[in-house]
Amino acid sequence: MKKFLLGILWKLLLVVLGFFAVTFTMYFFNLDMKATAMVAPLLEKWYDRLERKQYI
Amino acid sequence: MKTVEKIINPVPRAGEQSPGKIYDEKLKVRARREWRGVKDTFYDYTRWLYLLSVLGRFIMVPRNVKGFFRYRWMMSYLFVPHGMDKFTIGLRGEALRIAHTSFNFVIADVTQAIANCFRGDRRVGNDKAYSDKCVITDENSMVTFMMGFDRDKVHTILREVPTMFASNIFHQFNVMHYLDIAQQYGIPGDVCPMPEAEAGISIEDDFCVLGCCAVQNNTTCDGSLMGNGIIAKRLDREYGIPTFQLATPLRHKEPDVMDYAAQEIKNAIAFVEKHTGEKWDWDVYFAAAKRVNDATRCRIAQMEINSTPYPQFFGAAFSLYNDTNYMGNSGRDPNFVKIDHKLLKLAEQGYKAKRMYAREYRHRAIVWGVQPQYVIDMLYWMVQCWGVVPLTDMLSVINTDMIADTDTPENREQAYRDMAMLNMEMIMRNHTHGGYKVLLDDLWDLCEKMNADARAASTSCGSLTTCATRASLPARPSATRSTTTCAPSCARSRSTRRWRTFLTTKHTKEIAI
Q1: Is B2 inside a domain boundary?
Q2: What pTM, to 2 d.p., does this model score?
């Protein structure tokens, strides 16, 4: 039982550490905003294609 | 010329370096986030995770995904973490916590506002029962006339805040498209870009369409008077949403306008009652009035701390939090109270520890005019690179009087006058209308009170009144140093803006040297 619980704790610790390693790398190297900056021009093209009822 | 004593930070700051060194010129984002020492970097990381969770929860609702692909301005919200990074440039310790506490709360509030807009929007959520209890209000309008309506029964939708105002803070090129649209339809490019962009959004049909009625306000500048007409026409004639024009007197320092101003508030309340079917509740009003007074006391306390050699809550976060609390909330949301007190506690803690947020403080500046407040990086850059501390700004210098907050027959009549006073003393309006006394004399008084020796203002020609201030400055014998900046959205095109930014950056550097 003790071994089983330690195994779960160990796996949990690995998951938390893995989550931290991945997200902290994303955070510190600003990967989220770099990806967004690359996606933005594609989104602009999408919005340009939409039909709108323009008038004043 | 007034001078202040230079203060050198005796404590070394972890990861201290020029903010420009971690900026990626090609992608227009940072190459990496700032290293602030283990404790502060970890704190900033946890707040980043929190922001991602707010955005994640929002986008998990299917109608929000539909709204995201319908409205161009929604793209800006992908840049929220980048926007938050701008509010924390160079900050450590209490100031970092203050910036996150205040602005994370604003972000959560705006996220909820977008979700509410999409819920009632005829094109997206189309929840008619909800929409029928929504009142659309102007972005630059105080929502005092909604203070006496139960928030669970009548919903106040500041439609232009998520569409233009907040989205422009996170992605400062966002409004260029809408300015281009407005100018394609013949609107001149030299009015205030904020209402012009709003007019462009309306022309482009890029506003959410919801609500049983709308209240517009003659806000603060030439552009808003023009833009309101264009927006009201579409609301009223195309979408059948009746629109009330709340005409607020501009000579707000003159006591003879008060009766008229109070009557306008009564008319606005009657209009909302008629269209929502809900009644004004004095208990709800006076509870909100207590919270307005509480927020005023906290703001005054923050300003007092900022007048000392060790200011704590300053820069764009101070202004934008005050905007949201004073104008967009007006005591209606009780959650602001605990945030106000938390912020004050952090500021007092930082003040007692004599915490500084740069290597040195060389000058103490008042940010006067609206535009320099919204070049968000600029204010933090000023303190980090030049040691110029932006103590406070035009938008935060608002009402300091207490309003009646106990329910008596006399106070019920006084309440209309209080609401009118708050509306007239609204941000920007109270210093851009009312002549030189509010535009110039108040500035000099503020310089005295805050022990300031510098002023940051705008070279934008969009706002004629602030241009007038700039023109008047040299005539003042005790004139403080003047630093000029350019608003990000004031130009006619991206290339013009880059050209202007280049010129002003060059110009300001010369002044600093």
Answers
A1: no
A2: 0.89
